[in-house]
Design a protein that fits this description.
By secondary structure, the chain is α/β, with parallel strands linked by helices. Helix content is 45%, strand content 12%. The chain is built from 8 helices and 5 strands; from the N terminus they run βαβααβαβααβαα. The longest helix is centred in the C-terminal third of the chain and has 20 residues, at 184-203.
Length: 215
Amino acid sequence: MRSLFFLGDSISIHYGPFVRQMTEGRFLYDRKRGEEQALADLDQPVGANGGDSARVLEYLLSERSRGTTYDLLLLNCGLHDMKTDPHTGGKQVPPDTYRRNLEEIIGAAQSMAAAVIWVRTTDAVEAVHNTPASGFLRFHEDAVAYNAIADDVMSGHEVPLLDLYTFTQRFGEDAYCDHVHFKEEIRRLQAAFIAGYLERWISCSWLTGDKENRP
């Protein structure tokens, strides 16, 4: 049975248990450890929360140095990268640095995994998120821009995109339970979308290099 490893932000922590249930018997599900620590504060990149692209790269390089390998590696980062300082307007990871980090992330990932899939970053609800008390801001236009950067990098490396962004947008702002996270019923739908994608994936021959039959 193929192993399935997730390295992503807090959104993936929420839908992860449902993905595990829906793919049982097809994949051996695993993720970056420390879910309890991450769930204590979902805005902080600790434990199972992969954080921004710099942290994801650091994690992958550390795991590669230990000889870690994966069958199927699902990656995501972006929500933390696009955090915006309310005083300076600066991004936690500027777009050009984000692009460079993604190039290195994919280089490392493809050297460790038989197959890599990129999960497009979901959005933020500006009206809820960007209050005067917010320590940092997020903007819809940045979600679009950072996804576009990731799309371009993944295209260049022939990494398939799992478009969780577009799938989730159809449910509107009522899907959210806070500024960026989703209600449980939406997490289940996200997991079903991912599980369906992976079911199509397992029916193809990606692990033997058949790129023509990718979903």
